[in-house]
Amino acid sequence: MKKPVICGVIVDSDMAAVRKAEPLVDMFEVRIDLIGSDWQDAARQLGKPWTACNRMVKEGGGWQGSEARRKEELLKARELGASIVDIELGITNLERLVPIIKKKAKCLISFHDMEKTPPLDNLEMMVRRQLDAGADICKVVTTAREFRDNLTMLELLAAFPEANLTAFAMGDLGLVSRVICPLLGGGIAYAAIKKGGESAPGQVTVAELYKLYEMANK
Description:
This protein is of the alpha/beta class. The chain has one domain: Aldolase class I (TIM Barrel). Helix content is 39%, strand content 21%. The protein contains nine helices and eight strands. Strands 7-6-5-4-3-2-1-8 form an eight-stranded parallel β-sheet. The longest helix is centred in the middle third of the chain and has 14 residues. The protein starts with a strand and ends with a helix.
């Protein structure tokens, strides 16, 4: 069974919580849209690789500024040392932005459905579009409305065995896919660095996820 990559999601400037989580994670995600203007200070203090994410509102983010400024912050992160930059599949000028990011970082192209889990065929099309756009890492996140949605995400993962694909469903009903998909080679396991610091519905903490994976490896 593949060892999951645990990513601690940073949503504020609580660096004490970051330092406490650091031994348990492989990497961090810096949520520019949630941290605010202090995000660069937080990023500079990290002792492990990090992903830059500045999520648009319609895909579950909190960015309130202009779209041009949102992209500027992501490119700043690339210059600051982000090892991965996360951009959405629906971003404008995707084909121009991907090569710029890939000059200094890996490009993660993501798709989020905040309402449901679309049919498998639709999700497979999203992954193909991400790969065609030049994604180093693909990320497809849906919302679980029934237990069957977990199986859909596992089927999506199985359909692209050669791709670096992160796939799971959000929400309490999606917890199974959130935990199991990374065990089956599903890319990155995202977790909150502290209780109350969740960046998405159904997200567990780094400590909880670390303990679950330790148990799974025994």
